[in-house]
Amino acid sequence: MAEVVAEVVAVIPFRQLNPKSRLSLFLNRKEREELAFFMLIDVLKTVFNSGVRDVVILLQSDEKIEEMQRKLKPAKLQVDTRDLNTAINDVLNDLINSSPVAVIVSDLPLLNEKILRKFLQEEGDVVIAPGRRGGTNMLLVRKPFRTSYHYGSFVKHVSTARFMNLKLKIFDSFFAGCDVDTPDDLLEVLLHAPDSNTGKFLKKLGFRVVLEKNPRLVRVLTG
Amino acid sequence: MAEVVAEVVAVIPFRQLNPKSRLSLFLNRKEREELAFFMLIDVLKTVFNSGVRDVVILLQSDEKIEEMQRKLKPAKLQVDTRDLNTAINDVLNDLINSSPVAVIVSDLPLLNEKILRKFLQEEGDVVIAPGRRGGTNMLLVRKPFRTSYHYGSFVKHVSTARFMNLKLKIFDSFFAGCDVDTPDDLLEVLLHAPDSNTGKFLKKLGFRVVLEKNPRLVRVLTG
């Protein structure tokens, strides 16, 4: 089955500027940009270790592109300032006739190599790992497809696959399902992936889990 | 592997009175009690269909016990008004020398038979399906064990298993990971299990999903 994984090209969309706005009450812009970058590093490490053929990071701006290229190699960086879906669908169209394509969101610090390999080996024309709040955290396509990453992408991707008569598989994973948008999601990182780059960064910022009736997140002042 | 499942006794703790207090802003007490009951019915159906040997519903009060017994048969009802952990550990102690025991929380309307059977067939002395916010949504034990269901049960169950030198397996499931405590969790029910008893009840109450940038929940006036 290793050959199946070695055919896949992974596409990771990444927003450098002012990401994770739903964490704005808890993290300033610089911290949110760093958090997003550490999450990308965690995902990238997992994706490379899984043994895929190539990784394309799809950037939404050319901000600090040389520095990004240096830090993220051997991933290929591609800048596309257009709407996210237009950008992803263009990459998908370019690749799909020669490789299966896995679109993986960049904020999955709980993802690990074992889960990702299982996902990439799943049968089907379209395989979807749902995220919370109706998202699509990982999408594997082996036939031409059109993505739709806003306004409840999970429901839309399921409909599109059915409409196009493609064999659809839902991939059931708690850890792949934890994308990071809210403070509750940060709690998941500290509970399940405290030693990831993301987890270490959150601890450095002073975030701690308090087990008090229900686990909750606090931020303490740090040095 | 069907024999493995047929040995298991499932224990489902259930709180009849004033459950799901974190939904109090959105649902009145009667609605929350009904919601909890519909979720129990969904879980119970899944558990019976999985083919386990017996199901014990562990009630925290004897309120309306005859009506409950009638509606929930063939499950065995057991009332224990003591602290939840004391009650669960007592049942566990009674059963563990003759059967593997699966403790399953009653608010998993996204759980299905296929996932549950896979869980019950998982190897290990202790198998844990994590829930959001540090919870333990399903716990399968094949050797004596002590549960600890408050204050971050996932972390505590993992520690206990390690301390007792038991073979531990983490069961990775998005759908088993969705227990229902918050309005965000209700959104998951309407997205992924709209035709469950729970989903139909929420729709009857007027809850709808609006796909507007990010999917969100609204409640419209009904009837």
Gist of the model:
The structure is a homodimer of 223-residue chains. Helices cover 38% and strands 21% of the residues of chain A.
What would your notes on this structure say?
2 copies of one chain form a homodimer. The first copy, chain A, has one domain (about 1-175): Spore Coat Polysaccharide Biosynthesis Protein SpsA, Chain A, CATH 3.90.550.10. The first copy, chain A, is globular. With about 220 residues, chain A is of the alpha/beta class. In chain A, the strands form 2 sheets. Chain A has a 7-stranded mixed sheet with strand order 3-2-1-4-6-5-7, sandwiched between helices. The first copy, chain A, has a two-stranded antiparallel ribbon with strand order 8-9. In chain A, strand 2, helix 3 and strand 3 form a beta-alpha-beta unit. Helices cover about 40% and strands about 20% of the residues of chain A. Chain A has helices at about 1-5, 30-50, 65-70, 85-95, 115-120, 155-165, 185-190, 195-205, and strands spanning about 10-15, 55-60, 75-80, 100-105, 125-130, 135-140, 170, 205-210, 215-220. The interface of A and B includes residues 129, 151, 213 and 214 of A.
